[in-house]
Amino acid sequence: LPRRCNCTSSVHPWLFLGLGNPGDKYKGTRHNIGEPINKLLDKSYVTAKRKRQKLLDNNKNMVLSFDGSPASIGMNMSTGCEFPTIQTFERAPSAADFESGFELTNFPAVFRGCASDWEACSKWNPFSNGLDYLEERAGSVEVEAMLSRTAPIFNGDIRSHERVSMPFSDFIRLCKQHMISKEKGSGVDAKSASLTPPLPQDPTTPGQIYLAQFPILNDEKEEKVQLKILRQDLQTPSLLGGKSLSSINFWMNSAQARSSTHYDPHHNLLCVVSGCKKVVLWPPSASPSLYPMPIYGEASNHSSVGLDNPNLSDYPRAELSLQFSQEVTLNAGDAVFIPEGWFHQVDSDELTIAVNFWWQSNIMSNMPEHMDSYYLRRITRRLIDREMSLLVSKPSSTLLKQPSEHLDQCKIGQTEGGDGNSSNQSIEKGISTLREKTPLHDLDPSASHALHDLISLVHDHVNAVGTSRELQHTSPSSSDIAPERDSSKILVNALSSLEDDRVAHMLWNLEASKLRDVLLAMARYFPRTLEALIIHMLSPVAAEVLTQKFDEIDQQSGEEDRSQFYREFYGAFDDESAAMDIILTRKETFAFQAFKNVLDKYLGVHITSPTTNL
Predict the structure, then answer these.
(1) What is the per-residue DSSP string for 84-140?
(2) Model-level pTM?
(3) Is 535 left (phi over 0), alpha (psi -120 to 50) or beta?
């Protein structure tokens, strides 16, 4: 056979026609160049996780879970990934311990009393004349408040709110009037506050206004830092010692408010100065259940789903969102570390004031721009592989109709080669060793069942379409592959899951060694049936299952046996290259479906069919 290699992102011996495992010479090449990256990332994570655990072990009296019991490790049952419970520390760690034990793991943590020694905690307290102090210190500053059309929920999407410019003193006056109205048990609207300049024409309650993300410090836009006068009442938490901060922001609401679910492109330490905040957090891997806004949109870091009462007909995956979430409560002086990429929803009590610190992660700051496209491809490929594993999840064996009988002696004699004592001459290539190992009569009972089912399935299909004569006398050529590629859109629609595809299900339920025996039996005694199975009935999901089984066969076989197996398997086809191309094309079609799912789940992008150079 001609030597032929199809280069892919990983080494698959079955891609080498009859040549067996390519061997160690491909290690370290572009076939598996992602392996060192994964090992490096895994090593860094494991090192940080060990340091974090050591810190926990040395400070057991510092750590409490939500109910006051010792912190525990939880398991994310949907993905099988381990997600520890977000832990609460009664005092903050040192800067070195924070960086090595928390920041590097990209996992949240709560630090009680982290900001309790700030002067702001006493001076800004609305219930201790804090509003008078703020008005005196910064009342003349012009601020931009968010006026929400969906209050008390404040969305990051600019279509749901507008920015209203006003003196800080007017915002403080609204807060004061809200306090008075709450004491009297009545409401207050913006018109009664006699604001200058007035708010928009429609009646507006203080609950619709939120002073969000107003800068106290900004390393890029210093000229826009109007509230820097309040910086003297704050201290940079000791755990952030040595950090190059991107910004420090002021947050204040008069009535109850909720920020919509979103993630930030920076590490975040959120500190409550006065009041109370409840923060619900989701790891970045929970993105599919949160339906992120399209990556090309202005609010791409926000969820498109209201999680209180989601429309499950439009957002079915949202039903799983609570399984991935954890909630923490912050009172005055408390802080929570929210790593970059972690989705969070923040509920604020009335008259809550907070300050947050943003800084760029080491991963992002050390990522050279000329590597962006490579990292994009690597990460996308990893997400595709994970999605393919989800699509090819093990089905219940009860869903597969069991055959009612073995292949009896009469049917064994009715091979496509003649009387059962001879085999098709096209596969006589000196493979006597394999032939002796698995004669048709000595098949394992479960393999015999599977062989019977596959043959029956193919023949039923052939009879249904009236092409049995054509299948006996024709075989695909390389020219048939172009239409195959063009039909990928149709194939994609047929691969919904493993359980919906009988051929894929049958292949999956067979052990690799038994499938090997079945395929060899078909190659020797039913070559045209094998050809019909591969050419006409192998769906994209079945192609993925078949190649996964090929990989298992490779791991269980010696190099000589692997080479002989593939020679005999592909030898059943008149055009071996065409057969391999069809398997690869349908496998790639399956991967394209996984790619579409990745775009939908993680980037909020929907596509319908492959395009050139996609």
Answers:
(1) EPPEEESSPPPHHHHIIIIITTT--EEETTTTTT-THHHHS-GGGTHHHHHHHHHTT
(2) 0.73
(3) alpha
Q: Strand 343-348 relative to strand 257-262: parallel, antiparallel, unpaired? A: antiparallel
Inter-residue long-range contacts of 378-382, CB under 8 Å, 24+ positions, other chains counted: 378/34, 378/37, 380/595, 380/598, 381/9, 381/34, 382/34
List of residues 6+ apart from 217 with CB closer than 8 A: 225, 228, 231, 245, 247, 248
Measured between alpha carbons, how far is 491 from 111 in angstroms, rounded to an integer?
Answer: 53
- Per-residue model confidence (pLDDT) at position 159: 67
Nearest CA-CA partner of 455 in 370, 368, 518, 369? 518
Q: Which mean pLDDT values do the consecutive 10-residue runs of the chain (614 residues) have?
A: 38 46 33 41 55 58 40 37 81 94 94 97 95 96 84 72 88 92 63 44 60 89 83 96 94 92 96 97 95 91 86 90 93 98 95 97 89 93 92 57 42 50 37 48 85 90 63 46 41 54 90 94 93 93 94 92 93 93 94 94 84 44
- Residue type for position 157: D
Q: How far apart are CA 197 and CA 210, in angstroms?
A: 17
The one-character DSSP state at 241 is T
Concatenating the DSSP letter of every residue in 473-485 gives H----GGGHHHHH
Q: Are 568 and 520 in contact (CB under 8 A)?
A: yes
Alpha carbons 253 and 275: distance in angstroms, whole number: 10
**How many angstroms separate the Cα of 586 from the Cα of each of 10, 82, 248, 292, 466?**
17, 34, 52, 30, 24
Lay out the sheet containing 352-359: strands in order across.
63-64, 87-89, 109-111, 335-338, 267-274, 352-359, 245-253, 209-218, 142-148, 161-167
Closest by CA to 536, choosing from 592, 480, 489, is 480
Instruction: Pick the closest to residue 13 from 562, 409, 450, 433 (CA basis).
Output: 562
With 0-12 / 13-18 / 19 or more C-beta atoms within 10 angstroms meaning exposed / middle / buried, residue 353 is buried
Q: What pLDDT, on a 0 to 100 scale, did the predictor assign at position 25?
A: 33
CA distance 589 to 17: 21
Q: What pLDDT shows up at residue 483?
A: 44
User: Residue written as tokens 């290539």?
Assistant: 429
**What pLDDT was estimated at residue 143?**
92
Are residues 267 and 340 in contact, defined by beta-carbon separation less than 8 angstroms?
yes
Q: What pLDDT, on a 0 to 100 scale, did the predictor assign at position 46?
A: 56
Which residue reads 């194939």 in tokens?
A: 491
| Beta strand residue intervals within 456-592, DSSP E | none
Tokens of 11: 């080494």
Distant-in-sequence, close-in-space partners of 258: CB < 8 Å, separation ≥ 6:
152, 153, 154, 345, 346, 347, 348
CA distances from 223 to 145, 218, 228 (A): 18, 9, 10
Q: Which amino acid is at 22?
A: P
Whole-number Å distance between alpha carbons of 304 and 297: 12
